[in-house]
Amino acid sequence: MTKLRFNVPVKLCVRIDVSFVNALARTLHLMTIMNCLAIVVVRLGIAKTVVLAIARTATLSTPLVVGIISAPAIRAQSASEIRPKFEVASIKPCKDFVPVGGRGGGGAFSPGRMNLTCQTVEGYIQAAYILFANGTNAKFFSLVPIEGGPSWINSDRYTITAKAENRTTPGIMQGPMLQTLLEDRFKLRIHRETREVHAYALTVAKRGPKLQAFKPGSCTPRPPIDLTKPQSPPPALAPGERYCASLGTSKGPNIVVDAEGMSLDDFAKIFLRPLGRPVINKTGITGTFNFHLVYAPDEDTRSEATAPSIFTALQQQLGLQLESTKSTGEFLVIDHVEKPSGN
């Protein structure tokens, strides 16, 4: 069976805090996000050790592939398409670097400068082509499996130090510019494929939904992240005000999810992603809600858990259910990659 690789953080945190992820993302330290730093990983759902952010590679079984629907190449193939590039870039192998728990050495940014320390090529690919692909809107909860490529892309580590124009944003450096660098120096050739895969449809259970409507003004949603603008912490709130919570915690053998002011689309995308299949909201329910869900994390620990499986918990606690269906899934396929050329 073909194996797919997902870039996932190694460190198993006991907490997912989506609001804090957004706050952290404003610093735009790519490898800080990618290494998780005990923020966004938890043992959730049937997929066992799973994540909501990207960092290191784990191996998961491929979903059923019925056929390739499309396979557009990810490359500047026309003369009219000009992608930005660094003025100067240095790539050095990390020969003596010993990762702690599989993590790299982090990243740092200053105006027009980027330094990414001892990361795998596969991590760089996920960052450049998924997380910061267009340099404007970070896709923090997009996990796209990678196929192809030699084994060293997930074992050999490299430090990238690069200089761009002073006004270049970290999003552009970590996205389009890093794409150009990977293609020029690693000779990377990669394309996307869209395939039919197993999925879940989120529907309303027979007895109807049990959703708590969000009360506007009860908390403040965090502002969206715009990678084209200088990043800073979210503004301080007035006394008595707070930002809406959006987190998952591990309490004993159970997982507890609390999210405020969230749509069903976002709830499925963020908190049901660990099921290992795409989850499509077919409820037809719009609006925002407060969610509270308690369930057993996976088969290995269910005997110790005091809560039901996520499938049963959704029905009992939220009046929702998951039904098997088929959908389309995106894949990154590596056609060619080489160890980097000299500086």
List the main descriptive attributes of the protein structure presented here:
343 residues; six-stranded mixed β-sheet; five-stranded antiparallel β-sheet; alpha+beta; 2 domains; single chain; 19 strands; disordered N terminus; globular; 7 helices
Give structural notes.
The chain has 7 helices and 19 strands. With 343 residues, the chain is of the alpha+beta class. It folds into 2 domains: 193 residues, no CATH class; 131 residues, no CATH class. The strands form 5 sheets. Strands 6, 7, 11, 13, 17 and 19 form a 6-stranded mixed sheet that branches. The protein has a 5-stranded antiparallel sheet with strand order 2-15-16-18-14. The chain has a 4-stranded antiparallel sheet with strand order 8-12-10-9.
Task: Draw up the topology in text.
Layout: E1 3-8, E2 15-17, H1 18-25, H2 30-34, E3 41-43, E4 49-51, E5 56-61, E6 68-70, E7 73-74, E8 88-93, E9 106-110, E10 113-120, H3 121-131, E11 146-147, E12 157-163, H4 170-174, H5 176-185, E13 189-204, E14 212-213, E15 246-251, E16 254-262, H6 264-271, E17 279-281, E18 289-295, H7 310-318, E19 320-336
Parallel strand pairs: 11-19, 13-17
Antiparallel strand pairs: 1-5, 2-15, 3-4, 6-13, 7-13, 8-12, 9-10, 10-12, 13-19, 14-18, 15-16, 16-18
